């Protein structure tokens, strides 16, 4: 499922405006970049029915050269080849695999292991980068105002026990044929789940990308 073209355009305009505001010195050019940023906010508000002021506030908090945000997700399997999943509190308790935004001063794999520990109570060793994907091209819903790169790792349990957190209301393992129907599609898609199972079954597979 492709994203609506208005979102692609608005995101691009916002990126141009943010990068321009980072390096601009001429006050007249600065005003033009601010106009572009406001235009992008208006486009997103019109297309999403979100208050334009909320979007403008979100954009105004961004600074520096525009780059995609980085998210990590982890496929962890038990001895019965079942996938570890959690109910995400912030998404009406829908199911996903552990993960979240990367943190400063940590590598991507360290962030991945940290997310598993915080959301499930299990410690893991990260063993493989299975997928490096652009979120906008994978059919995730709802769409996001910013570009996001999603890194999917595989991890092996080294300790701990199932424990919920302020982010998760339930922790469980699921065989591929028993994956819950209520998936948090903003975080993971059925196709991405299938690819995690494929990479677990065939560790020699190369990393999926794009």
Automatic annotation (TrEMBL):
Matches recorded under InterPro entries: NUDIX_hydrolase-like_dom_sf, NUDIX_hydrolase_dom, UDP-X_N
Keywords from the named record: Hydrolase
Gene Ontology terms for molecular function: hydrolase activity
Gene3D superfamilies: 6.10.250.1120, Nucleoside Triphosphate Pyrophosphohydrolase (3.90.79.10)
Nudix hydrolase domain span: 67-196
UniProt keyword DNA-binding, yes or no: no
Keyword flag Lipid metabolism: no
Designated name of the protein: Phosphohydrolase
